[in-house]
Amino acid sequence: MNQSNWILSQRAHKMNPSVIREILKVTEKPGIISFAGGLPSPQTFPVAEFQKACQTVLESDGRAALQYSVSEGNAFLREQIASWLPWDVDPAQILITSGSQQGLDLIAKVLIDTGSRVLVETPTYLGALQAFTPMEPRIVSVESDEQGVIVEDLDRKIGTGSDRARFLYVLPNFQNPTGRTMTEPRRAALVAKSIELGLPILEDNPYGDLWFDAPPGQPLTARNPENSIYLGSFSKVLAPGLRLGYVVAPSIIMPKLLQAKQAADLHTPTFNQRIVVEVLKNGFLERHVPTIRELYKSQCNVMLEALETEMQGLDVQWNKPVGGMFLWVKLPEGMSAVDLLPKAVDRGVAFVPGVAFYANNPDPRTLRLSFVTATADQIRTGIAALAKTIREHR
Ligand SMILES: Cc1ncc(COP(=O)(O)O)c(C=O)c1O
Q: At what angle do helices 284-310 and 270-280 cross, to 10 degrees?
């Protein structure tokens, strides 16, 4: 037998399989109603528009669309994005990335040293924890409630001297995993506190356009752009398979992000950017996004009604999201969502245990439900099965 000469880096040892992906394998059995995935509804993907755009681009501009291009991204796309953002953004501040997930990875490389303190919400987006971890930070959870980060806790968590936090990672709108949204007073208080403490903010906003009845408050970055980095994405308003996102960064950070981007993949695929430019012509998103909002709002209402009906007398709590794709459930005292999952899968329904989303001190009673990929009938059947499982095992 050949002896292996490969030696893994210490960094590689820090990378762990995503708990969620491991869990999702169990839920991929045929016939399972899954509330576990973080996928947008494929019903919302504008397939016909993409088909037309591919044809047009290949006919009119095919050779350029298939060539290498600049690392910053398509100039027209960057101008479009700058014009949508609700504060004054120079397109030179925008870097097109291969999904906002790549933005998280590049930012980690540029801002985190071994041992650097990084603050996150409780709970937070698992993919951000995965992107930060190989850079070996010390990730510290800031206490949070239904309105987001508890501002006073920042005084306790900021750290001192060389251990002062590099940044706070925060998702103000329809957060993944909880679905919660920061209220206006909380946004104002958080920005004021971050200015007082000199704490930079990394704001991740892939769900902000998916509001049900009213748009969420102004982005945190709009209030303090020099000390904030903003992440946006086309995954939830067009299609995640494009792998198209963007970073808005202050001019002091941008050159380093660009160098990290060049090292990672030279640039985001020219073709995908060019197609999206074509699809976005003539105000497509203004017509398309309201249809996604309507679908997700009605799916969310079906799930809330099903929870109301099925969970009666069970001491289960849940929130009422005002946008996005997820809601957050808390099981009765003493129950564990990790233990409940295989039993729920036996009954034909899956979810993600909340423990996956905590940097420190996970709450075993929590779980995340997506309301966007199952049909209304599946939502009713799935929630009934979940309630039955809880009733049997509480
Ligand atoms: C909060 C958050 N940030 C970033 C991402 C990554 O999105 P993408 O890379 O598709 O833009 C996701 C994906 O689900 C997410 O939920």
A: 90
CB-hemisphere CA count at 13 Å for 151?
16
> Does the beta carbon of 100 lie inside 6 Å of ligand 1?
yes
pTM: predicted TM-score of the whole model, two decimal places:
0.96
Cα of 197 vs centre of ligand 1, distance in Å, is 28
Note the pLDDT tens digit of each residue in 27-37.
677 889 999 98
What span, in angstroms and rounded, lies between the C-alpha atoms of 45 and 241? Answer: 10
Whether the predicted pLDDT of 24 surpasses 70: no
Measured in angstroms, how far is the CA atom of residue 209 from the centroid of ligand 1?
A: 14
Residue pair 384/344 in contact by the 8 Å Cβ criterion: no
When the pLDDT of each residue in the chain is averaged and rounded to a whole number, the result is: 95
Segment 286-302, tens digit of pLDDT: 999 999 999 999 999 99
Q: What pLDDT score does 10 carry?
A: 86
Residue 306 lies in a domain: yes
User: What's the pLDDT score for residue 11?
Assistant: 85
Q: Is residue 194 part of a domain?
A: yes
Which CATH number belongs to the domain containing residue 370 in this structure?
3.90.1150.10
Tell me, using a 6 A CB cutoff, whether residue 144 lines ligand 1: no
Last residue within a domain, chosen from 283, 310, 341: 283
Distances (CA, A) of 307 to 76, 342, 346, 386: 45, 20, 20, 9
Measured in Å, residue 100 CA sits from the centre of ligand 1 at 6
Is the beta carbon of 127 within 6 A of some atom in ligand 1? yes
Instruction: Answer yes or no: do 128 and 174 share one domain.
Output: yes
Atom of ligand 1 nearest to the CA of 98: 9
Q: Is residue 273 domain-shared with residue 350, that is, in the same domain?
A: no
